[in-house]
Amino acid sequence: MRNWLFGVAAAGLIVGMAHADKAAAFERVGDKKVVVFGGRQQIPVLDPHVRYDWSTRMMQQAVYDALVKYEGDPAVIKPWLAKSWETSADGKTWTFHLVDNAKFHNGDPVDAEAIRYSFERGLKLNKGVAWMLKDFLDPGSIEIVDSKTVRFNLKTPYSAFLSFLPWWYVVNPKEVKANEVDGDDGQKWLTDHAAGSGPFKLKRWEPNVLYEVEAVADYWKGWPQGEQNRPGGVIYRIVREPAVQKAALQRGEVDIVEGLTPDDYVQIAKARGITIQDHPGMTTFSIKFNTQQGPTADKNLRKAIAYALDYNGLVQIYNGAARLQTSPFPDAIRGYVNVPGIPRQDLAKAKEYLAKSAYPNGGLTLEYYHVAGLEEARRIGLLLLDNLAPLGIKVDIRPEQWPNMVAKGSKVETSPAMSSVYVTPISTDPDAVAYQYHPNSYGQYFAMSFYKNDAVTAMIDKARRSNDWDERAKLYADIQAQIVEDQPEVIGMMQDRRWAHRDYLKGFQFSPVRFTGEVDLYPLWIDAK
Amino acid sequence: MLSLTLRKIAVLIGTMIGLAALTFLITNVAPGDPARLVAGPDATNDMVETIRVEYGLDRPLIEQFGIYMGDLLTGDLGRSIVSTRPVIDDLARYVPATLELVLVAMLLGVLIGVPFGMLSAVYRDKTLDQVTRILSISGVALPAFWFGILLQLFFAVRLEWLPVSGQLPLTSIAPEPITHLILVDSLLRGDFETFREALSHIILPAVVLSFPCLASILRVNRAEMIEVLQSDHIIAARAHGISAARIVTVYALKNALLPTLAMIGLRFGWMLGSTVLVETVFDWPGIGLYAVSSSLASDFKPVIGVTLVIGFLFMLTNTFVDLAYAWIDPRLRSAQ
User: Fold this and answer.
1) What DSSP string describes A464-478?
2) Residue B79 domain-assigned?
3) Domain enclosing residue B301, as ranges
4) B43, B73, B103: which is the final residue of a domain?
5) Residue B67 and residue B125 in one domain
6) Which one in A126, A240, A287, B297 has a CA-CA gap of 20 to 30 Å to B214?
7) Which residues in chain A have their CB less than 8 angstroms from residue B196's CB?
8) From CA A187, how far away is CA A517, in angstroms rounded?
9) Is residue B131 part of a domain?
10) How much is the pTM?
11) How many CB pairs under 8 A join A and B?
12) Is there a contact between A122 and A128 (Cβ–Cβ < 8 Å)?
């Protein structure tokens, strides 16, 4: 019996020891507070010329600077490493003048050579951001005018050129070259190291767990919240499950989270000390049809489906935190027009189009693919199932892992009849959206419809090379109208971007051009004792 | 005994090679294009091809298989296409965290399962027995995913006794590794604060992981104890006036423990597989979490690596159990 008593006492001692402190309101390093971000996604590779997605880019922007930066809502391109720039009359030459005081974390100045090296490296590696400029810029065509002036000589005019530059981060050539292994251009080293000039420098890199950056006290651009309020750093902690994110936020283990479900946002908005950021986003949801093969190659059938869908139901699935699209382009894109006559639910019209199709009485089953685990996309499938029943069309809802869905959609032979696709444009230039409808985009997930209209293709090509905004605006208006007419997809809605954070977190600045979940960490700070 | 041990090792090696081959084929036949996924959503076809060539994915499957198996024999498990790191480095980072979790869970399972199984048998059909039976059925029936979130909400959010997830507080640094098990290393280094923090983080995931194991041990031990307590030598011991406590803890328990030991061996392997769910809920940085994130990204090499590690540890445990049985029971030795 004594042994048992001893055992119970020992267990009690262990539990007592393990009893955690009440959650601290925030983490600290020295006298500075640290912002803790809870995100679902890991950051496998930090190299700014090799990878990007929302979490990676958020951390890249923390440790690196670019020539220009997107800020605000609507997103505006602001000078950053470049204090000014000019372009030639033919739109082929872009000259950037650099600020004088920018320096890398090791103290080296950010000069024209660093800009040239960074762009050449990005183009040469042919990974990550390379697609944005590779058709228009050769690695050897970047010219150093003087130590603070750099010139880009494009092969052909490219009107969207400037709009992509915020995502081309500048690395320190000396540091990268010093860490090259077997001519890898420093790729191995830059996977979990940084050679930047950004407001934060890398402190801790624990793959699959957390990534920590430390604020640069004498950041060349200064701190918008003031030296007194600037954070000591930011910890990006991976919290994969929405329910766990919610629990961690409520307990104060994280200061801001990005991945709650629509229902979670509604619930947690009522909790004390929590603020919800809810902003109209630029991420579009559409149901892409395979326009070249199978029943959905029939335009009348596509139209029938588009008119049968309950669009208000789409918004309800997001508890109202979404807006219907009125064009294939998000409204934050330059050149967006409200296209008249975009389909809304009208069963009579749906039946009219069905009667004109090769399936006048329905009697067919269409596959609807969505990303496995994405509850909203599944519910949209159920809505579709219900809405198409009066047309005699059955819907086979198929959840699929994202890599498999991408693989399926990369070939016209395997692309599903209907796929739910969310797309976030990379820039606010209309070319970023229009080019998704160009045959050169076939193989990519946003081109699963394999849309082909020679007139639209010609307009896209012409618009991206034009230097005249009025001409471009007219072309993009026509492109939007024609896409609506051709109905390569059900043009759906734009869900709001949402974050939940503790109310002591200040400085949050929304910009629609950022990816889902992505936050500008630079202006954040904690207002608490 | 020596020849038996050698035979077991030969079987172990053969099975591992078979497992590697099978996993390689299954993962590569499965649909999905890791190169396109890694290249990014906007990558052009030639950019995807750059990745494909870099990782040898452009070669015929049979050639990829040959290279993989050749590398495997030299201890090279390949490179993760997502993280770009060698899989062996990732495993070295994640395996200790999983082992620590499984060992603590196993300890909980044994420390609770064995005595309660014993008490349940002694107080058969009494209140205690009914309660433990409900506990054991719940342990087998409760989904780990749901149970984990429930415990988080109660103990972390409501009571604020324990942290929600993770292995250590955010600003804590793990002690300089000796065994790579944080609990052990922090004790060996005399860092009791880190030990306390690590213990507070491991309790919830270990409880969730141990619950089904605890339930099985409890049920098996109860059943064995009931049988042993009715046997002749126990009746004889009672007739000799030996105290009830001594009969149960010394005479009966020892006899009932053999099948329980076999159950512990089996459950160890099962627990390694179950870490996939538990580590995801608790963001525990082990191989389960690594397997989940890798398979979602169609990152095949880490998936094969994790399968091999779990397979190896499972087989190793069973080999030890087999050998232990043979060592304990001479009849089994001679039979083999």
Assistant:
1) HH---HHHHHHHHHH
2) no
3) 87-335
4) B73
5) no
6) A240
7) 17-18
8) 26
9) yes
10) 0.87
11) 162
12) yes
